[in-house]
Design a protein that fits this description.
single chain, alpha/beta, TIM Barrel, eight-stranded parallel sheet, globular
Amino acid sequence: MIDSLRCGKQWLDVSRLSPPKVMGILNVTPDSFSDGGLFVSVTQALQQAHCMVAEGAAIIDVGGESTRPGAAEVSVQHEIDRVIPVIDAIARECDTIISVDTRKPEVMRAAVEAGAGMVNDVRALREPGALDAASEAVNALGVAVCLMHMQGKPRVMQEKPEYDDVVETVKGFLQARIAACTTAGIALDNIVIDPGFGFGKIVRHNLQLVNQLSAFSSLGAPILMGVSRKSSIGAILDKPTDQRLAGSLAMATLCCQQGAAIIRAHDVAETVDALKICHAVIRAL
């Protein structure tokens, strides 16, 4: 397992010696499941980025296309128009790592040029041209790439997803995507993996992934988990999106115990605190 992840001009400590880093979610979309419409202007988005950095976010993840179940696709130009002004503004004003949450190679190239140090792709660089775009960005600027597992596409991914063994299936997929990346010239110290909690998985699948998350450590890449406010938490607690903070923090600490290096979250300050406590207990053993 690597200790440092190169993210463009910056390096991120992903070793077990420090608590998992928090990736703050910044959706500049009108239809994301939790915060859609809240940060659609550059002014609103930049203010939220400053707030999350002050609360302890090590990464700001900017997304311009919703990946919630049933979400409609967004054109390349529309997505660029949403995310690039925000990334440019954050890069000028905040000393933080910026991630772009996209599956489109054109958006990847534009975002990296604007200052993004990470490409976070729910399709794990499987869209036509995405692997080439990521490889170019890695080799030219040293950006990081996050490879996520998703069964199907956002619009239909929750329509009866099935697995014989969800952990082995997801692990095998991520192993294959790591191999594709290394073949394309992307070094392991530029790769993050994400098992895709909530993406083409029912509650039982998601719980199994968290329960056995440590199994993914053998792949050698830092593990990112995005569990914040997800529908599985809502199903377990029978609570709406805006009442899932406690459940999200519980999931985050369980992921920390199982070896996650990065936690993607809406509630940055609370998540940072919870992870510090969890990590302190782990290090005391």
